[in-house]
Structure formats: C-alpha cells, structure tokens
C-alpha cells in the first residue's frame, strides 16, 4: 500500500435530506441503494428528463430509474424501471442445490469475515435471484448508454454483466460474464478498466467483453467503490464492511505504473453519517455484508458524477434507506 499525498477534499451536502427515499418516493420501495447518475445525451429522443438516476433494491428484480431536470429534483420515479431480471441473462428463479453444495458453500463463506455476520440466512444469500449495482456510462462515440450490473448467476455465485441502450430506458443485456460484482468502470490508456468488490481489477479492449483479470487491491472487506480519474491518478471512493460507522473513504492509485503493479494509497475519511437522515442518531455498530434491513448508522455505495467542471458524490444513506447528493471540492 502506497503513501502518496492525497488531495484535500471538502464535501458540501447540497440539500438537508435525501433526493430519493421511501418517505418521499414510496413507489421506489424500502431498500434504496447503488446510485449511478448520467446527464441524458442530446441524441436521446423524447427523454423523461435532463438526468437519469439508476439505482436498485439490494435483492430486487429490476434496475430502478428516476429522472429530473435539476440535480436537486424534484426526482420522479419511472415506475417500470429500466433493465428487468428476465431480460438480464441472470436466472429469475432460485437455483437448485443439494445438501452437499450447501455445506460446501457455507464452509467456504464462513472463512470470509464478511459472512461471519449477515442480516439474513446464508441460504437466502445463496439463492435469492436479483440484479443490482448499476454503473451507467454515456458512450458518445457509439450513441449508446452502457450499464454494468450484477446478479445471482448460480447457487452462491454472483457476477457482473453489461447491457446497452439507445434511450437509457430499454436495455439489451449481453450474456457474457465480465467479472465479480459491484463493478465500477473507467477508461485509461485505450482500455476500459473495472474495479469490482473486493478490489478486483479488470480490463477490456472494448468495455463489453473479454475482461482480463489483473491485480487485487484493498482488502477482503472492501464493499462498493466509485472512481474519479484525474490525469494519471485514479481517486477511489469506497466503504468497508465492519466499520462503525461504515463511511466513505478515499484512496488513490498511480495509473502511470503498469496495471499489474497498481497499488492503492492508505485511505482517508471523506464522509460519515452526521445528519439524522443519514442515520447518525442510530446505534453505532459494525456494518454487515449484504443487505441493510431498516435504517442503520452507515453510508454506503458512493457514486461520482461530473458536469461542467464540477464533481458530485451520490451515496446511500442510513445503510440502504435512500440516496443523497453532495458536491466535492478537491484541491491538489
């Protein structure tokens, strides 16, 4: 782990409350997490709004979609959502298994500290069909929107795929498995790179197929991350399972080194729950892997959005109880 100097960051919350939560958007459901925001490109005909915000229920059956003409809203839920599990190439029915498979999977997962404490049974973790963690990108050259997402591929196995769309609403998923879950993609040196949980790095020549596995960074308890590229340095915003409270951290990676030699710097804290709507008044307890049921004292699922020279951070509040937005002010 490197010790390069990190930029100074000031976080400015842009509203005194979430932009989406169950209380203001009951149609969105009770579990709201995994944001990914895009500015709708001009070539999309008859858009729902200027901005599309993709998010999910941690164990949901489709990728949700909200739209607005201003970053602070009002945000409206497009009730059909976008990509649905039946069109994702992930199974929509629980996978079959036998006792031997269950015992082997339990033994394997018990060796991972992330699974020593779960908010539900391991069986539910191994068998609940779902798709989640959208990571959307506007591909101006090909006039399409590319969205990475993950789902349950088989008994106890979750993986990532990619889908493309001409309008940001109707997506066509591709069958190829790309890598691990919670993939966040960025372009560098002619490749599309991705960082998946926990810290697995991949690269592809076209961003849609043939993802090559590279180094593993961070630690086994890294959860979701977001990435911001500045020249030859990648800023990685991330959270860690087991922290009390779970909070948003920042490490950087020097991209000038060969990708197989990349290393992350020691993390610094960027944001923790400080408002009641972020869960700050709730008991201070180590976070657990998987779903957050109900409101908890945690921030999760950072996402980065850039527009007109400004950098925004979206994040899940009170565990997985809504989405908030802040502006990041970075100085080198």
Question: Would you kindly provide a written description of the structure presented here, covering whatever features stand out?
Answer:
With 332 residues, the chain is mainly beta. It has a single domain, classed as 5 Propeller (Tachylectin-2, Chain A), CATH 2.115.10.20. Helix content is 5%, strand content 39%. It contains 2 helices and 20 strands. It has helices spanning 99-110, 122-127, and strands at 8-13, 33-39, 51-56, 64-68, 76-77, 131-139, 144-154, 157-165, 171-173, 184-188, 191-196, 200-204, 212-216, 222-230, 233-240, 248-254, 268-271, 300-307, 310-316, 323-331. The strands form 5 sheets. The chain has a 4-stranded antiparallel beta sheet, with no helix packed on it. A hairpin with a 4-residue loop joins strand 6 and strand 7. The longest helix has 12 residues, at 99-110. The two termini are 20 Å apart. The mean pLDDT is 94.
């Amino acid at each position: 782990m490197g010790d390069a100097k990190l930029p100074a960051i000031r976080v400015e919350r842009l509203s005194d409350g979430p932009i989406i939560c169950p209380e203001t958007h009951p149609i969105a459901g009770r579990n709201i997490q995994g944001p990914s925001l895009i500015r709708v490109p001009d070539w999309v005909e008859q858009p729902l709004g200027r901005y599309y915000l993709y998010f999910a229920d941690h164990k949901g059956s489709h990728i949700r979609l909200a739209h607005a003409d201003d970053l602070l809203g009002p945000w409206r839920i497009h009730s059909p959502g976008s990509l649905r599990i039946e069109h994702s190439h992930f199974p929509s029915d629980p996978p079959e298994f036998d006792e031997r498979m269950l015992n082997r999977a339990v033994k394997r997962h018990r060796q991972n500290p992330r699974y020593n404490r779960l908010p539900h049974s391991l069986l539910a973790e191994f068998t609940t069909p779902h798709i989640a963690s959208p990571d959307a990108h506007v591909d101006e050259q090909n006039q399409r929107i590319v969205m990475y997402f993950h789902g349950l591929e088989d008994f106890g196995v979750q993986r990532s795929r990619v889908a493309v769309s001409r309008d940001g609403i109707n997506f066509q998923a591709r069958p190829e498995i790309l890598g691990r879950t919670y993939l966040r993609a960025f372009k560098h040196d002619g490749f599309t790179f991705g960082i998946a949980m926990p810290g697995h790095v991949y690269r592809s020549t076209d961003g849609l197929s043939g993802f090559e596995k590279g180094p593993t960074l961070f630690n086994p308890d890294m959860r979701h991350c977001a990435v911001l590229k500045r020249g030859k340095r990648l800023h990685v915003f991330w959270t860690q399972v087991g922290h009390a409270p779970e909070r948003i951290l920042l490490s950087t990676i020097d991209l000038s080194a060969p990708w197989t030699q990349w290393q992350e710097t020691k993390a610094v804290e960027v944001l923790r729950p400080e408002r009641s709507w972020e869960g700050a008044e709730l008991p201070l307890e180590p976070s657990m892997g998987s779903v957050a049921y109900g409101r908890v004292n945690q921030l999760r699922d950072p996402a980065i959005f850039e527009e007109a020279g400004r950098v925004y951070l979206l994040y899940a509040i009170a565990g997985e109880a809504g989405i908030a937005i802040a502006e990041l002010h970075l100085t080198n």
